[in-house]
Every structure is written in C-alpha cells, then in structure tokens.
Write a structure and sequence with these properties.
5 helices; DNA Polymerase III, Chain A, domain 2; nine-stranded antiparallel sheet; Proliferating Cell Nuclear Antigen; mainly beta; 2 domains
C-alpha cells in the first residue's frame, strides 16, 4: 500500500461542484495543488490569454491531514505537493452525480442569502485521498445509502500551469462591488454583441468607473459613480501620474475571454477587480458557504490593447 500523503473530509460537496463548474469553460483539465492550508485549482487556455484559480481553504474540511514531511515549500510559504493534473470534466461529473445534496442558488440578482450554500443537516461526505503523483487521486463519496469511489490519474505531468499572478506592488486599480452589478453588466454587454471591452477608471472626472465596449451594435458604455452604495472600494494608485490631476488607468480585453468569469460572479456575493501596470486584470469572486467559510475564484486576463 502506498503511503497516504493527504486525506481530507468535507460535506460541502455541492459548493465544490459549483465553483469548479464555474471554471470549466476555460479548459478540459485542471491542475490541483494540495497545500498545508488548503487546495488550489488552476486552469488556463492554450493561448495563455487567461487563467482561473480557485482557492479552497482548509476550514471547508472537517478533517484535514497533511503529511508535510514529503511536501515542498519554504519557511515563508505554505508547504505543498507538486500539482496533480486531472480531467476537470470528469471531476465535476463525479461531484454532480455523487455529491450534490446541499443546495446553492445561482439566481442572478438574488440577495446574499440566495447565493450561499445550505449545508445544514448534510449527510453526504466526500473524502479525498492523495498518495503522490504516481498514484490515483481518490474521491470517496459516502451517505446513508451508498459509498462510491472515483479515481483520477495524473495527466500530462510535464504540462503545468504558469501563474498569471498580479504583483501587489504593481496594482494601479482596485474596485470592489456587488456581484449582482457585474453580472448585470456582463449580461448587457453580451446582449450588445460586444467583441472588445475597455475598463476605464479616473480619480476626478465623472464617471469615475466605466466599461466601454465595441461590437456588432456599435459602442456601449456602462458607468458607475464612486459612491459607497455602488462601489464598496475604489482605489487608483499610479505612481507615474500626478495625484493632483485626473489620474486615469485603462486597459482593453476581448469580451469572449472576459465573459468566462460570469458563472463564478453569478454565484458570489462580492467581486474584486484589480488591474496592474501592464493591464493584466484580476476578477476575484467571493463565494460564501457561511460567515466563517469562503472560497475565492480568481479569473486573470492579459490585456489586448491592439484593438
């Protein structure tokens, strides 16, 4: 029997299904990195134009046993095992078939309670077992009626994702708003047959924050004032511009790429948009199980300013 390097048990199976389904449009495969403080799922497209990262904290598990003696890492970062690449379609199918007994609503426009997982009284459990990159990764589902085991093999081990991280010191724009507002904006831009979207923010001129799109129906603008009942956070910090003037930051993106974050936004409560000096964009959705447990789905997009 191989040595068990990790084992964890959770009842939030439907929550895992929902957030992984939200990134399934990106790729057929996902890289799973098991860390001492949680899971990181990463998917990206072959063109390297976009990437999605799901961070699952260990408090989503009722039991989390991590054998750090065989893990990698340094003193200033969590220990981790090498990424394990598996079929995302197969994983979401297993989670849907054998694990869905708690409920999450993805009704657009719903209030905060509508967007949360109800795991009260859940009898369904999922145990995850990892014994190393050369052994199957096991998901064992158990409830009062049955026990089912799904095994996944490590695929394309030489093809690992390169992170599209934003360096915090290079972030020039940070906006936090309700997920409902961004969901509505993406729906409106899609209805306008948008092909290209430019995000523009400015400190003094009005509107302070807007999305401008071009497409089959011409130019469309969705604007937001810098008011607390609209934008929870609005920060522009570009050291290359005079803070006494109207500081402007902007960058453009293919709408066909940007819209891939819509499903994750639709099942979240808040969304944080960040842009760095290179125009790279992060759209991070906060998906809530309860007040103490939250999962973050972070879509990252490279700029396409040639349009």
């Amino acid at each position: 029997m191989p040595t068990l390097l990790f084992s964890g048990t959770t009842t939030c199976v439907s929550h895992l299904y929902t957030i992984l389904k939200a990134i399934a449009l990106m790729s057929k495969h996902v890289s799973l990195e098991i860390m001492s403080d949680g899971f990181k799922f990463t998917v990206d497209v072959d063109s390297r134009s976009s990437q999605a990262v799901v961070l699952v904290k260990k408090n989503l598990f009722s039991m989390y046993n991590f054998n750090d003696q065989d893990a990698e890492g340094s003193d200033d970062e969590p220990a981790f095992f090498p990424p394990y690449r598996l079929s995302l379609a197969s994983l979401t199918t297993c989670l849907e078939m054998f694990g869905k007994n708690d409920v999450i609503s993805d009704k657009a426009g719903g209030n905060a309670e509508d967007r949360r997982v109800d795991s009260s009284g859940a009898s369904q459990t999922c145990r995850i077992l990892y014994s190393g990159p050369d052994h199957p990764l096991k998901f064992v589902f158990r409830n009062d009626q049955f026990t089912t085991s799904c095994e996944f093999l490590n695929q394309d081990t030489d093809k690992q994702s390169e992170s599209l991280n934003l360096d915090p010191s290079e972030v020039v724009l940070k906006v936090i708003l309700s997920a409902h507002l961004l969901t509505q904006a993406l729906r409106d831009l899609e209805g306008a047959k948008s092909q290209y979207v430019r995000i523009i923010a400015q400190t003094r001129a009005i509107p302070h924050f807007r999305l401008e799109s071009t497409g089959e129906f011409g130019r469309n603008v969705i604007a937001y004032p810098n008011e607390r009942n609209v934008l929870d956070t609005f920060v522009i910090d570009d050291p290359d511009q005079d803070p006494e003037g109207n500081v402007i930051v902007q960058s453009g993106y293919l709408f066909g790429e940007l819209v891939k974050c819509r499903e994750a936004v639709g099942v979240s409560e808040k969304v944080c948009l960040r842009m760095d000096v290179y125009g790279r964009l992060s759209v991070q959705s906060m998906c809530v199980v309860d007040e103490a447990r939250k999962t973050f789905v972070d879509f990252r997009f490279n700029a396409h300013d040639e349009y």
